[in-house]
Design a protein that fits this description.
The protein contains one helix and 13 strands. The protein has a five-stranded antiparallel sheet with strand order 1-13-4-10-9, with no helix packed on it. The chain is an alpha+beta fold and 171 residues long.
């Protein structure tokens, strides 16, 4: 009886567990997390002229933030040692910044990160102690900066901006 129940409701139980985990993660982040999003590409292909758009509500311009990027790639299709990116930041107050970033995917010929659901996932800090000029809403565009028109093998790109923990922070 127990086996029949688990077989019949396995998908529903897995979805419920995943949703509960997501809710716990979101609730525990509080106001310290500015952005924690991941965008997935159709057919694991990222077009060079189609940047991914992220929205960020920055609560404080005096705080410092850790700026991390993540990617998941299909190692059978992705041919490069790293993923070069352009990051453009647009603020509501007219601020505009741009910088280049690179997610190293291999070290000494070996894949970095871990395998998750058939994809190699790598998280890389591109800016530590990053600050915004003003509190408010920002749009952050991330584009692939390779010479390939359609970059094959990229499953997703993620942006994670979290308030940096300072030595004197008590919480």
């Amino acid at each position: 009886m127990k086996e029949r129940f688990l077989t019949r409701y396995k998908g529903r139980l897995l979805r419920t567990a995943a949703m509960m985990g997501l809710l716990v993660a979101v609730a525990s982040c509080g106001r310290k997390t500015v952005v924690d999003e991941e965008h997935t590409f159709a057919h694991n292909v990222w077009n060079r002229f189609t940047p991914e758009h992220f929205e960020a509500a920055v609560p404080d311009n005096e705080a410092f933030y850790n700026f991390d990027l993540s990617t998941s790639v299909d190692t059978a299709l992705f041919r490069y040692e790293s993923l070069p990116l352009t990051v453009k930041i647009y603020g509501a107050q007219g601020e505009h910044r741009m910088f280049y970033a690179e997610i190293p995917l291999k070290k000494e010929g070996r894949w970095r990160g871990e395998m998750v659901e058939g994809y190699r996932v790598v998280v890389h800090r591109v800016k530590a102690m990053f600050s915004f000029n003003a509190a408010g809403d920002y749009r952050i565009d991330i584009g692939q900066a390779t010479s390939q028109y359609d970059l094959e093998g990229v499953h997703s790109i993620g942006l994670h901006i979290v308030r940096a923990k300072m030595d004197y922070d008590m919480d």
